[in-house]
Amino acid sequence: MAETHVISALVDKRARVDGMIQNRRFQIMRLEMELAHIDAVIKMFNPSYDLEAILPKRSFAKNPAGVPKGAGGRYALTILRESGEALTTVEIARRVLTKLKKAHTDEAIGMLAAAIHGTLSRRRDGAAVMDASSYPCTWRLRGT
Q1: Using one digit for the tens of pLDDT, what is the confidence trace for 86-122?
Q2: Crossing angle, helix 71-83 and helix 89-99, to 10 degrees?
């Protein structure tokens, strides 16, 4: 025979999950209505516009590291400048989080490392140089 406290806990958990599902359904309905209104306004301005050609954009979650947008790349260059050595993006991310006195969670390090890699990869001034001869690749400043 099942324990009553176990059944009570499971019933409570089920009620919470069901409530979360209901809430998400309302959010989806609201977003679908908002999308329909935006589509209608686009058609008002340009009736021949092909709405199917608009590709969905990925929305990113809030940065778990708590680092302001764009700051990771700036701090990465500072870390590379101060260290004077080649570092992986994960090492750079850890040092940035230490410098900012932020939590070193795996999620925060991973997201910040990905942002730093993307930022350094897109630089056109050649300030940061990637060495992909080993895995994982390392970054250094030009001339160091």
Answers
A1: 999 999 999 999 998 888 889 889 989 988 998 898 8
A2: 100
